[in-house]
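Weekly modeling sync, notes
Attendees: AB, CL, MP (scribe)

Item 1: holo prediction request
CL wants a bound-state model with 2-acetamido-2-deoxy-beta-D-glucopyranose before deciding which constructs to order. AB pointed out that an apo prediction alone won't tell us much about the pocket. Agreed to run with the ligand included and paste results into these notes for async review.

Input as submitted:
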Amino acid sequence: MMFDMDNTSSFKNESFYNDTGELYKNGTLPIWAIKFYFTVIFFGSFVSFVSVIALLRCKRSGQVTCNYLGVIFNDILPEFKEINLKQKLLITHTAMHGVGTPYVKKVFDGIGIIFQTVPEQQDPDPEFSTVKFPNPEEGKSSLDLAFRTADQQGSVVILANDPDADRLACAEKQKDTNQWKVFTGNELGALLGWWMLFQYRKKNPGKSLENVYMVCSTVSSMILRTIAKAEGFHFIDTLTGFKWIGNKALELQSAGKEVIFGFEEAIGYMCSMAVVDKDGVSAAYQLATCASYLYSQGKTINQQLQEIYDKYGQHLSLNSYYICHDPVLIKKIFDKIRTKRGPDTYPETILNGKYQITTVRDLTTGYDNNQPDKKAVLPVSSSSQMITFNFSNGLVCTLRTSGTEPKIKYYTEMCAYPDIKDKTQITKTLEEMVDAICEEMFEPKLNGLQAKAG
Ligand SMILES: *[C@@H]1O[C@H](CO)[C@@H](O)[C@H](O)[C@H]1NC(C)=O
C-alpha cells in the first residue's frame, strides 16, 4: 500500500505527500470529519456508525493510516456499505506472510466486510515459511493454504495480497466444478474497471463520460480500451510499470481530467487517485464490495466477468518468453524484424498472408505507422527492444526484452469482436497466430532460443 518500498516515490506528487510521506490533499482531518458528521446526521444509520467508530479508533494508528481510511470510507457509497453488512459474504484474506493484515482489517471492519485470515500467513514472517514463492502472481501453489482455510469455513471468495500489500489476487470457488478459479491480472483489471465505471455512474448520474479516463500499461489487456470505445470514456496506455501509469494519471488530473482506474497485468490496481500507485488494500476493499454486490444480485464474480466479455467481446491472452543470454543475438533478431525489405519495413502478414498486420509501433526506434508523422507517442528507449503489432482480426502482439532477465518476452491478446461468440475458435486462432509469430519473427531453432519450460 502507501508505504511501498518500490522505487516509485519519484512520481508521488508533492501535493499528496509531504516529506514524511503523509497524505495531505484528500485526507486532512477537518474535511472528512465534517463530511462524516453530515453523513451521520443525514443517514443516522448503523452503516455510517460503523465507519465513524473505525475512524475514531484509527486515531491511535497514526495520521497516514487514519487519513487513508478517511478517504476510503468517504469514497464508498452508503448503499454499498449497507449491502456489505446485509450480504455477510465471508472473505478469506491472506497477507502472504507480509504487512497487509492490519490495514485490510481496519478497512474491512469500517465498511462492513466480514473476513477471516489465513492464520499461518497473517503476520510478517521473513522466512515465508508456508509458500514456495510468496507471490500470488505465481498462481495457484501460493494459495494452497488459503484454499484449505476457505474450504473449512465455507468461504467462496479469497483475496490475497503480496507481502508488501501493493498487489492483489483473487480466487472464487466455482459452483459447477467445485474448483477454485484464480483470476488473472487481466481478468481482475476488466472486472475492477467495470466496477469503477459502475460506481462512477452511480455517484454522477447522467454525467457525460467525456472527461473520464482509465490508464493501463501497454502489455496489459486492452479490454478497457474496448469498453472505453463502447461507453464513451477515454483510455490511455503507457509503458509498463506503475511509475508510468501514476505519472500519466497525475498529468491528466492536473489537466482537469478524472482518472477513475489504472492497472497493470501483474495484478497491480489503482482504484483511487488518493494513492497514485498500485495499492492492494484499496483494491481488496473494492473487490470485496463488488463481490458482495454481485452476490446480492445472485451473481458470482466469474459470471459478471463473462457478462463483460459477452457484451464487449472476448479478450484472450497468451504470454510467454524465450531465454536468450546473448544480447548481440537479441539485437540481431529484432533488427531483422524491422528491416524486412530495407529500413522500417516490418512484416505485413504472417502465415503467407493469412493474417494481416495493420499497424506497427516500435518503441526502440520510435517508429509508429499509426501516427500521421510516423513517430511514436510513448517514450522511446533504444536500450531495450519493444515492438507492438496490431492485426486486422483484433490480435495485439508485443515483443520485448526484459530489462532485468535474459528473456525475449511476448504478450499477445485476441480482442475479438463482440459478435464472435465461439471461444474455442478464438482460442484456436490465437494459438495458431502466436505459433506463427514466434516461428517467423524469432526463428527459435535457427537462433538456438530456449522456450519457457512447461
Ligand atoms: C492498434 O489499433 C488501435 C486502434 O484500433 C490503436 O488505438 C492503437 O494505437 C494501435 N496500436 C499500435 C501499437 O499500433
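Recorded for review: Residues 423-442 form the longest helix (20 residues).
Action items: CL to compare against the apo run; MP to circulate these notes.
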